[in-house]
Amino acid sequence: MIFYRLFLPIFAENQTMKAKTPSESRTTQTDLVLPNETNPLNNMFGGELLARMDRVASITARRHSRRIVVTASVNHVAFNKAIPLGSVVTVEASISRAFKTSMEVVIDVWVEDRENGLKSKANDAIYTFVAVDETGMPVPIPQIKPETEKEIQRYDAALRRKQLSLVLAGKMEAKEATELKALFE
User: Fold this and answer.
1) What's the order of all strands across the beta sheet hosting 119-132?
2) pTM for this predicted structure
3) Domains of the chain, earliest start first
């Protein structure tokens, strides 16, 4: 009974909010890699990059929900390419999918070639944020309306990732994970 009193209003309000597009909250930050942000090999510390990604993703989640947001999980991080001292680094984040109170944020990290200015993808990550009120209780958020083919792919994949996470955590029966089952049929 407590569940229904707490979460039924969230579900109902979530359904009446106007959906937003990923471009409405997309956030981009460009900055230099400075000496105090590097390891003994003169490459950016992984922790420094994680902090930058968290800040940019947090702004994206806040823009989408227009609420206080907290990092619920770091679902995936890939350090594919070292980022050397002095590099120009761009961190881009966008909402891939919104659920009732949580949203998945996809982050791409680009490094700019010093000589020709071309950008190449260095890293990527997926974070989950939850919108909360001033007391820390989850609050409903608008849904996402993907527009581009890439946004649609990310939107669909987000539900599969969420279902997998719930199954692995024991919060969902495998037979209920319809999007995961569809991959194997």
Assistant:
1) 27-32, 88-98, 102-112, 119-132, 68-79
2) 0.86
3) 2-145 (3.10.129.10), 146-185 (no CATH)
